[in-house]
Amino acid sequence: MPTPAISVADIDRVLGEDFRLLRFPAPLEARFEADTGAKRSRFLLVSGIITFGVFDLFLFRDRLQLGDIFQAALIYRLGIITPLALASFFVLWRNPRPWIREAMEAVLTVLIAAGLLYLVTASKSPLAVHAHYSMLLILVFPNIIQRVHFWYALTASVIVIAMYAFAIPHIHGMQQSIVFGAVLTLSTTTMLSLYANWKLEHDFRREYLVALRDKLRAQSLLSANETLSAISMRDPLTGLANRRRLEQFIVVLTNAAETATKPVVFMMIDIDHFKRFNDHYGHQAGDDCLKMVAHTIEQNLRTGSDLAVRLGGEEFLVVLPDSALFDGVQVAERIRADVERQAIGHGNSPTAPVVTVSIGVAVVRPDPRMDYADAILSADEALYVAKQRGRNRVWPPLAASNGDDRHPIRQAG
């Protein structure tokens, strides 16, 4: 189930309203349960296992104070409540929905109280009158220790106090003069435990909201920083990487174990007679031309591994990790042909009527001592040859680059 989207403003609004009914708006309540539910189930499971170990130890008390119905006490503790507790442990292990989890704990509280009240009213032992003191533990433990959610704890507490008020006058040997005091004591103790329960849940929910707000703010700040970092590594006109991103890319390339020994193709690209184009058509047309060439370059690269960089002006650089010279020349030839196919008119060019590019390709091996400027120099030398041979071409040509054995890999530096 996807985690509901929550904003800092949503949290601030709920904090301002103070949620005295211990309930968040639906999306935030769902997020709260998604973040805390599993931990809550584990807590109830562990505390429940410990509690029912102690619960069954009270059989020794039953043997002493309720000896005449000890068999009934055995059935109550070991035959009814313990199996129900084991079933609840299984459900808690599965991390149930919150209403199932909390209602289950409340129902167990009522059943435990009902069973004890039955035993103390059914016994004729003169000590039975002292056994009802356990009712305090039966209510205080789920309300304060297990912190059953307030509304479930309140419901269970009201039911238990009502059963207690009905049953206590029927305990053998109970003096009627102390019945009111006993009911008042249990009721007052329960009210105090319920207030503590409400306060604990309210404070827990408030702490959760504050922590979530801080987390969302930190995520928002991180996202903003990442966006700014990404912007700082992009050429604002073409969207290609800039020199800063290139430097970072080269560091990773030369230090990563999976790429440190593999050949890398560097490709220098220059728009032919771009200054003439800019002078003839204007800077806006020049910017549009740069964007078109940048887009064409990106369209011919492998997403996620290759890098296209605008070095400045009309010069671009492409880095192709784990590529042979022949592979690089193939990519370069596709870029060259695609730019020419765009048929952007260049009436001021002495070599072609449309915008074209010249590309120089070189291959190097990464080295921790490598200065990426050396690698660029290799590609730049090839670009110079392409220009000298008439522009609108790739150097070395495709036919001459087939096989690295015929064109040795140049070691940078």
The whole-angstrom Rg is 39 Å
Distance from first to last alpha carbon: 54 Å
Number of domains: 2
Mean pLDDT: 88
The count of DSSP E runs of length 2 or more, i.e. the number of strands, is: 5
Structure class? alpha+beta
Element pattern in H and E: HHHHHHHHHEHHEEHEHE
- Strand order within the widest sheet? 2-3-1-4-5
General shape? rod-shaped
Please state roughly what percent of the residues sit in beta strands, choosing from under 5%, 5-15%, 15-25%, 25-35%, 35-45% or over 45%.
5-15%
Q: In this structure, how is the largest beta sheet organized?
A: 5 strands, mixed
Low-confidence segments, given as residue ranges, are 404-413
Q: Helix share of residues? A: 55-70%
Number of helices: 13
